[in-house]
TrEMBL record:
<dbReference type="Pfam" id="PF00358">
    <property type="entry name" value="PTS_EIIA_1"/>
</dbReference>
<dbReference type="GO" id="GO:0016301">
    <property type="term" value="F:kinase activity"/>
</dbReference>
<dbReference type="InterPro" id="IPR050890">
    <property type="entry name" value="PTS_EIIA_component"/>
</dbReference>
<dbReference type="InterPro" id="IPR011055">
    <property type="entry name" value="Dup_hybrid_motif"/>
</dbReference>
<keyword id="KW-0762">Sugar transport</keyword>
<keyword id="KW-0598">Phosphotransferase system</keyword>
<dbReference type="GO" id="GO:0005737">
    <property type="term" value="C:cytoplasm"/>
</dbReference>
<dbReference type="InterPro" id="IPR001127">
    <property type="entry name" value="PTS_EIIA_1_perm"/>
</dbReference>
<protein>
    <submittedName>
        <fullName>PTS glucose transporter subunit IIA</fullName>
    </submittedName>
</protein>
<dbReference type="GO" id="GO:0009401">
    <property type="term" value="P:phosphoenolpyruvate-dependent sugar phosphotransferase system"/>
</dbReference>
<keyword id="KW-0813">Transport</keyword>
<keyword id="KW-0808">Transferase</keyword>
<feature type="domain" description="PTS EIIA type-1">
    <location>
        <begin position="35"/>
        <end position="139"/>
    </location>
</feature>
<keyword id="KW-0418">Kinase</keyword>
Length: 164
């Protein structure tokens, strides 16, 4: 029966799986991120956004698997199996949670566009931190057709930055 539906609708790959921008701003290549952990894709492939406002929203439907104690990063397992990390800024772990407010906890189910974290963009910049926000697919090998999109302005929860 499943085979009949695949033939009718063009197979499983007909449905495009996408990751939306978690923040509004300018999407940039991971190679342009000023941290080798991200630019060398040690944690996985993805893209990054230089935010223009201090709100992080869910880039897809899924479950929050971790909110770091310092609230500078969130992990999400998408409903289709991608394991994401959204890392707000570079070296911002050193702020020890200052200027960040989490609105979710591990185990929460989220829908694309739900508010995850708010952060004070101006104060983080004033403290000397780069606010570039990498979005990483940690289980990249499971998504061999992953395509990162960058070089454009994006809207949180709406603009696609990664196609799987």
């Amino acid at each position: 029966m499943l085979g009949v539906f695949k033939k009718m609708f063009g197979g499983e790959n007909q449905i495009e799986r996408c990751i939306a921008a978690p923040v509004t701003g300018k999407a940039v290549s991971m190679q342009d991120v000023a941290d080798p952990t991200f630019s060398q894709e040690i944690l996985g492939k993805g893209t990054a956004v230089v935010p223009s406002e201090g709100r992080v929203v869910a880039p897809c439907d899924g479950q929050v698997t971790m909110v770091f104690d310092t609230k500078h990063a969130v992990s999400i397992q998408t409903d289709y199996g991608a394991e994401l990390i959204i890392h707000i800024g570079l070296d911002t772990v050193q702020l020890k949670g200052q200027y960040f407010e989490a609105h979710v906890s591990a185990g929460d189910k989220v829908k694309q566009g739900d508010l995850l974290v708010e952060f004070d963009l101006a104060k983080i910049k004033e403290a000397g931190y780069d606010v570039t926000t990498p979005v990483i697919v940690c289980n990249t090998p499971e998504f061999p057709k992953l395509e990162s999109i960058y070089g454009m302005d994006v809207s949180a929860g709406e603009s696609v930055i990664i196609k799987l």
